[in-house]
Amino acid sequence: MMITILTIIHFVVCVLLVSIVLLQKSKGDGLSGAFGGGGALTASFGNRGAATMLSKATSVLAVLFMATSFLLAIF
User: Fold this and answer.
1) Is 14 in a helix, a strand, or coil?
2) Taking the alpha carbons of 36, 37, 38, 39 in that order, is the dihedral positive or negative?
3) What is the pLDDT of residues 35-66, one digit of tens each?
């Protein structure tokens, strides 16, 4: 039961992490450019706000990904 819950959490964190990384602005807009050039994020959070929020979300999700990977390796 615990392995199933950990696997589901790990999968959700993995999908969210990939999505957040692809939304971040890079030299060539990445996935955010495909959805209107990232204008919605800029309009909502400003230039620095969106980058800070996405960077923090990436860090949190990366830590969760490593933690769930470690726990799945143990069990």
Assistant:
1) helix
2) negative
3) 665 555 555 566 666 678 999 999 999 999 99
Q: Look up residue 70 and give its amino acid.
A: F
**Hey, what are 44's tokens?**
């909502």
Contact 37, 31 (CB under 8 A): no
Question: Residue type at 6?
Answer: L
Tokens coding 55: 């960077």
Long-range pairs of 30-38 with CB within 8 A, sequence gap ≥ 24: none
Please report the beta strands in the chain, taking only residues with DSSP state E, as ranges in sequence order: none
Furthest C-alpha separation in the chain: 44
